[in-house]
Specification:
This protein has about 220 residues and is of the alpha/beta class. The chain is built from eight helices and eight strands; from the N terminus they run βαβαβαβαββαβαβαα. About 40% of the residues are buried.
Length: about 220
């Protein structure tokens, strides 16, 4: 079973961002996860297409761009042009999710949809075939370093069952509070892509931490 590791650059030291990207790539990062926040959908601000375009020069890894913004349909073209390979928006942020998934695919990117902790997996029933990625938020989005919400295990199992039945090629991703202590559990629940921020960048040796995480899965 192949598991994708997607370290979140939101937790990196941007004074050393080129070195930090090189380090996690050396440690085996598969994707680079980019959290875009607007201060409206979530109570925090991060970056826009300009920063992502600049970061694009530093890596050939797939950019896994997570839009935590209102009206994502207004901005997906800009993020694609900046170099995003996967564009994930929130189910709660737009009334026209199916249309936006189709549009993202038309831009040549993979289309992802994310659900907050209060949103049932069942809300994806009518659009699961249009998704290349489903992201289950295991914390309330907006800030790093939060504690994993235990109910998320059941949501991952529900999402895994839906994906396996209707769209097996879809990637199931989890984001929030994942570290060494619960990595195996989220994979057992069905996640195949793991976003980790502070549990990687908050360590003294991010590359070694990533290698240790992968070894934990290989040895269990």
């Amino acid at each position: 079973m192949s598991v994708i590791f997607a370290p979140s650059l939101l937790s990196a030291d941007f004074a050393r961002i080129a070195d930090q990207i090189a380090e996690i790539e050396a440690g085996g990062a598969d994707f680079l996860h980019l959290d875009v926040m607007d201060g409206r959908f979530v109570p925090n601000l991060t970056w826009g297409p300009k920063i992502i375009g600049d970061l694009r020069k530093l890596s050939q890894r797939p950019f896994d761009c997570h839009l935590m913004i209102v009206e994502p349909e207004r901005y997906v073209d800009d993020f694609r042009a900046a170099g995003a390979d996967i564009i994930t928006f929130h189910y709660e942020a737009t009334p026209h999710a199916q249309r936006l998934l189709a549009h993202i695919r038309s831009l040549g990117a993979k289309a992802g949809i994310s659900i907050c902790p209060q949103t049932p997996v069942a809300m994806l029933q009518d659009i699961i075939e249009d998704c290349d990625l489903v992201l289950v938020m295991s914390v309330n989005p907006g800030f790093g370093g939060q504690k994993f919400i235990p109910r998320s295990y059941e949501k991952l199992r529900e999402a895994r069952a839906l994906i396996d039945a209707r769209n097996p090629a879809c990637i199931l991703e989890v984001d929030g509070g994942v570290g060494k202590e619960n990595l195996r559990a989220v994979v057992d629940a069905g996640a195949r892509a793991i976003v980790m921020g502070s549990s990687v960048f908050g360590t003294d040796a991010p590359a070694a931490t990533l290698r240790e995480m992968r070894a934990l899965l290989s040895n269990s």
